[in-house]
Amino acid sequence: MPAPGDAPRPRVLVLRALGLGDLLAAVPALRGVRRAFPGHEIVLAAPPSLRDAALATEAVDAILPASAPRRGVPELTGWQGNPPDIAIDLHGNGPESHGALAALRPHRILSYSCPLPGAVAPPVWRREDHERERWCRLLKAYGIEADPNDLMLPYPSGPSPAPGAVVVHPGAEAAARRWPVGRYATVIRAVRAAGRPVVVTGGPGEEALTTAVAGAAGLEARDVLSGGLPFAELSALVAGAACLVSGDTGLAHLAVAHGTPSVTLFGPVAPSLWGPPPDDPRHTALWYPGPPGDPHGTVADPSLLRIGAGEVSASLLGHLRPGSATGRRNGYRPVGANDCG
Fold first, then answer.
1. Residue 30's domain spans which residues?
2. Residue 11, C-beta contacts closer than 8 angstroms, at least 6 positions apart
3. 309 pLDDT higher than 60
4. What pTM does this model have?
5. Which string of DSSP letters, residue by residue, matches 129-188?
6. CATH value at residue 178
7. What b/e string do you get for 228-245 counting C-beta neighbours within 10 Å, with b at 16 or more?
């Protein structure tokens, strides 16, 4: 708290009002902002449910609660006090997110669109950029250095609810990124046959899904952690896991942030856009190339459905073999008929 009569700290407002995976993909950019403005208070406009995750990045000082349905641009009516010194749009590339920040009358806006009169032309949005690289490139265009590989989170201080277990996370925000229940069950049975413990996790509203997967795999109720764990517990679970298996969701990004081996199933969006670092052998990205799909679609993406349970089981067991701390598959190589281990 400033002493009476002291001027308040200048503030940087960063708009990224999306989900957990989106937040973690923006960590390198947020760290760049933190380093560039060490005397400022860094405020992140994000859903209040992400408060603990945002603070765990150690790049954010405070949260401005902000969210909108269907990944839309929220109104930033909760902002109080003086206008932001700097406003940074890490939400999108259209005039809506830029306009939401401009309404607060910041001294300067950094974004991909709609420069203020007399401002330097913004950088060009490139659809082929990986999400981590996209926002670092935005900052670099404005003279702020940011490293796309600066994405690790501190190890959680609390204990894992299932240390050493294989964590299976079948849920996703949209059906397009949900692999079938029966295939997850087949993978779980293969892991258990290898003598490894398994827990199934799910977010709020995914109780029926996690119960179905566990039931099909022959797991007991104690092996299901559904309903949405608090972030500190979820982070400890992933950090302490032997491996994570999931679709392209926030937990996959959390595994990368903790260096936990992972097998991630991609469908509508290529891993070159949202996947783990391609040179990190701890992470396997399974993907069949095809036409881009809708990551928010209401049915499972055809490319995702091409991934078989045998392929996932082989990749997962490769990560779990004694002496195989880094796993067998590197990068974003497309899955082929004989490429299963």
1. 11-141
2. 40, 41, 42, 43, 81, 82, 84, 85
3. yes
4. 0.91
5. S-HHHHHHHHHHHTT----TT--PPPPPSSPPSSTTPEEEE---SSGGG---HHHHHHHH
6. 3.40.50.2000
7. ebebeebbbbbbbbbbbb
